[in-house]
Specification:
Elements lengths: L2 H23 L6 H26 L4 H20 L4 H24 L2 H31 L8 H16 L20 E3 L2 E7 L2 E3 L2 E5 L4 E7 L5 E5 L5 E2 L16 E4 L4 E7 L4 E6 L11 E7 L1
Parallel strand pairs: 1-4, 2-5, 4-11
Antiparallel strand pairs: 2-3, 5-9, 6-8, 6-10, 7-9, 10-11
């Protein structure tokens, strides 16, 4: 899992615990109405954000993603409302239930090319809502004099975080292939997959697909120079696609070429089981390690 996804999940966890800790620490000063609002907001926003992430990671398994998102949303709403009373608990549970369902559905339905953007937007929206929620808690009952708690300081830190967060690189390396992710020993077994090209490696470097079924290969250039991908010796029936979306394929030879930041894809069917190499054909790139293996299984 990419470091940016770790940062996203850990960030949600830390900020949620931070708000809940402040609720517990100041529970004697919180009115029932304030507590109900806090538990509702926290349950909803956590359920919604986590639901989107799980919906993307478990794409096409809406039952599992919805179930996990609901469990997490309800749990957060319950814990946030518990120090206040049963009405706050009920508000938090219902909000977490609603947020989890909506988030899972949104994550599952969103187009693969927009999944990463959606997760980033939801995470930054989550942070923004938590900041507003904390400022409201400051005015109502925390009343801290800490410099970090000042609204201007928090906004500046938020902007700095946004800039750094956007520099962390790819959030979801394989939007389509995460459905059947079997990421063990560097192998991703699926008939739809993304190959990331950087200096000077392919990730994954070992892929397994089933013969006779249509597969889609996406070359994503995350490096700083141009790269291509060519599967050596494998004959395939290539699906015709818009010329803007793929490189020229001659003699049923799969060949994709990308510049930095580009994604190109091709869909194909091959009926010949075997093991084939894929390489970057640009001078010196194969020799530097840009090779991989693709296994076509019966």
């Amino acid at each position: 899992m990419p470091i940016s996804l770790y940062v996203t999940v850990i960030g949600i966890f830390i900020l949620t615990i931070w708000i809940i800790w402040n609720i517990i620490n100041h529970r004697n000063k919180i009115t029932v109405m304030t507590g109900m609002m806090i538990s509702m907001v926290l349950g909803m926003v956590v359920g919604l954000t986590i639901g989107v992430i799980i919906g993307v990671l478990l794409s096409e398994d809406l039952f599992s993603s919805t179930l996990w998102a609901i469990i997490i949303g309800i749990s957060v709403g319950f814990v946030a409302g518990l120090p206040i009373g049963l009405m706050a608990v009920l508000d938090g549970i219902l909000a977490g239930l609603m947020g989890g369902m909506m988030g899972a559905m949104l994550g599952d339905m969103i187009a693969p090319e927009h999944q990463e953007t959606l997760i980033k937007v939801m995470f930054l929206l989550f942070i923004g809502i938590v900041i507003i929620l904390y400022q409201m808690m400051q005015q109502e009952f925390i009343k801290s004099k800490s410099m970090v708690s000042h609204p201007v300081v928090m906004i500046v830190l938020f902007v700095v975080f946004i800039v750094g967060y956007n520099q962390m690189g790819t959030l979801i390396p394989s939007a389509d292939s995460l459905n059947n992710d079997n990421h063990q020993h560097g192998m991703r077994r699926t008939n739809n997959f993304v190959v990331q090209a950087e200096e000077y490696t392919f990730l994954p470097s070992d892929i397994e697909i089933k013969a006779g079924e249509m597969a889609t290969i996406i070359l994503e250039n995350t490096g700083e120079t141009e790269h291509d991908l060519e599967i050596i010796g494998m004959e395939a029936e290539i699906e015709e696609q818009p010329s803007s979306n793929n490189h020229t394929h001659t003699n049923n030879q799969i060949h994709l070429h990308t510049y930095p930041g580009e994604r190109k894809e091709v869909s194909f069917t091959t009926n010949t089981p075997g093991t084939y190499r894929y390489i970057c054909t640009l001078p010196g790139h194969e020799e530097s390690g840009m090779t991989g293996m693709i296994d076509i299984i019966p």
